[in-house]
Amino acid sequence: MLVFFSYTRNLLKPRSSSPLPFTSIMHMSQSTSIPKKQDRVRDHGFDNYMEAEKKTRKVLKFQSLILSQPSQTLPISRFDSLARRLGLGFKENEAAAYLLKFPHVFEIYEHPVLRILFCRLTQKAHLQIEQEKQALHAQLPDAVTRLRKLVMMSNTGRLRLEHVRIARKEFGLPDDFEYSVILKYPEFFRLFDARDARNKYIEIVERDPELAICAIEKVREREYREKGLDAEDVRFSFLVNFPPGFKIGKYYRIAVWKWQRVPYWSPYENVSGYDLRSLEALKRMEKRAVATIHELLSLTVEKKISLERIAHFRMAMNLPKKLKDFLLQHQGIFYVSTRGNYGKLHTVFLREAYRKGELIEPNDLYLARRKLGELVLLSSRKAKVDKELVSYRRDTEVDDIVCVRPDYMENDVKDFGVEYEIEHDGRREGYSLDSDFVSDDIDEAEDLDEKEDTV
Hints:
Blueprint: H1 22-26, H2 44-67, E1 74-75, H3 79-86, H4 94-99, E2 106-110, E3 117-121, H5 123-138, H6 140-152, E4 158-160, H7 161-166, H8 177-182, E5 189-193, E6 200-204, H9 215-227, H10 231-234, H11 250-260, H12 279-298, E7 304-306, H13 307-312, H14 323-328, E8 334-337, E9 347-350, E10 354-355, E11 358-359, H15 364-377, E12 393-394, E13 401-402
Antiparallel strand pairs: 1-3, 2-3, 4-6, 5-6, 7-9, 8-9, 10-11, 12-13
Helix pairs in contact: 2-15, 5-15
C-alpha cells in the first residue's frame, strides 16, 4: 500500500514519487534525500596509516628538540623532563628508552669529555630533513597558487592569518610564509589588522577567474572523456567509493543517484546575493559544502587534513556546524579516521586521491615526508645498536646516565649507521609499508563548536 506524507516542520516530502519505508524517511536530511544518520564504517587502510603516523609525530617532536639546540645534540638525561613538557605521556626513564626504538633516526653515543650519553640525529635523518627543505622550496610557486585559491574560497575574500598558520604544513607553506609568501607577493595578497579584533587577516587583492576552477571539475572532464559517461549524469557528480563493508541498500542507492544530479554553486562563487531560505537553495548550499571540503582537501599536499583545522574555516566558507556528522553522511567521498591520537584527533582523507594506502599522484614534498616514516618503520634489528646501552641506570643523586660500557667509544655516524641503504624504488626488505606519512607538527587547534563522541 502506498503511503504519502505531507510537508511538516521536521519532515520534507521526498522528491521521488516512489514510496519509501517509514524508517528511511524519518532519517532523511531536510535539504537532501541522502540519509542524515549514518554509521561510520572503518577503512583499515586509512586507520593503519594513522597508527603509523602516531609514531612519526612523536619522533618529529624529539627531532625538533634536538635541532633547536646550538650543537644539535642533547644529553639523554634531559629527555624525560622535556617529554613531560610536551605532554607525550612518558613515564620516568621511558623517553630515553623510546629513542632506542628508532636507531635509523636517533643516534646514541657517549660524549668524549663529559662521559655521559648524548643523542643526535643520524645521517639518514639529516638527509631526509634536507630533502624536505629542498622539496618545500621547489614547490613554493605552487604553494602560492594554493594559498590564493584558499583565500578566494572565503566569503569575504579574507582569512585569519592564525588559521592559515596552523594548517601551513598541510598546504605546503613554509614556517615563515608570512614574509616569504604573503609580503613577498603584494600583487596577490594583502595583510592587515582588523580594527574590531586583535587578529591579522590575509586578503586576496584580485580574484583570478582562471584559478576559480575546482579540482572536481577537472576530474569530471576526465571521466567524461575517458569513460564516455552521460554529460547530464557527471555534470554535478562526485567520485563515490564507499569503504569495504558499507551496506548500500536499494533506496540509499537511489538517493545517492538523485543527489549526484543536484546542481550547486561553486565554492569560489559569491553567494551573498542569493536568497538562501528556499528548499532549493538549502540543497545547493549543502552540496556546495561538500564541494568546498573536497576542494580544501585537494589543495593540501597529501589530500588530508584534520577535522579540527577544517573547523577553523567553517565560518569563512559557510560549512555546517556539525562537521563530523556531515562528513559521515558522505562516506563515499571522505573518510574520517579517529586513530593516531587516542581518538582525540580526527583526520579527513579524500578517498579518490588514495589507492591501497598510497597517494595516486604523489609529489616531491609528499615523497620527502614519506621517507621519515620509512626510517621510523625500519626495524631496530637492522641497525648496529649496542644492546648493553639499554641496561643503563639513572643515579639517584646525579642526574646523569652512568654504567656505560667503557669500550663503547664509537662516535662516528658511519659506525652507528644501518647495515644497508634504503631502497627508493618501492622495494623494501623486512617490513611492509601500506600508507603514506606526514612530517608536520600537530598544533593546538581550536575546539569544535560541539564536542563529538569518538566512534
